[in-house]
Amino acid sequence: MNNKMIYKKRFLIAALALVTNFTVHAKELVGKVAISADTQQADLKRNIVIFKNNVDIYHNDKNIKADLLEVHRRTELGKEKQLLIATGNPATFSGKLKDGKPVTASAKNIRYDVAAGTLTFNGNAKINQSGQSMSAKTIVYDHKQELITANKDKGSDQRVHTILTPVKKDKRPVKKEEKDNTGNN
Predict the structure, then answer these.
(1) Residue 154 is assigned to a structural domain of this protein
(2) Nearest-angstrom CA–CA distance, 33 and 47
(3) Each residue of 90-118: pLDDT tens digit?
(4) Signal sequence: where (predicted)?
(5) Cα separation of 133 and 163, whole Å?
(6) CATH code at 65?
(7) How many helices (H) and strands (E) does the chain have?
(8) I need a surface site. Which of 88, 89, 138, 140 has the fewest CB within 10 A?
């Protein structure tokens, strides 16, 4: 075997070990992070794995679709040491609130801090939750606290826009027993 072939095998083994370490570490602490894409590249010096084209990220009840994903793993990122940065035109997010209701969002850039449970949508950010929608330059969604914060771009006149949709009340049929109790026979 020549040196080039040995280098390629070592690189492949190191890249697989790095990705396996991401998945195992995430599984132990907060659930498995599964990523699929057309292309994967590991930058071993900077401890970054890059996924390109048709990127799908699944983590518990959350899904992100993007054109490009960078997975950073470094000790300065804190306990979980993982930061996922997805880029797309747009990159999209879907998930569920604690009550099971869906939430969807899109932006040019989605930054997912696994340890903090926060998603930062930047660049033409939009989020929809229970029929309500919001758009802004930047939206931060704290999944753990179910808190959404939106900000306009500094130096811009474009403000945060929200559309509130009235919630329909359930019209349940009145039971015979309830009619009898009100005196309406």
Answers:
(1) yes
(2) 17
(3) 999 998 877 888 989 999 999 988 778 88
(4) 1-26
(5) 5
(6) 2.60.450.10
(7) 2, 10
(8) 89
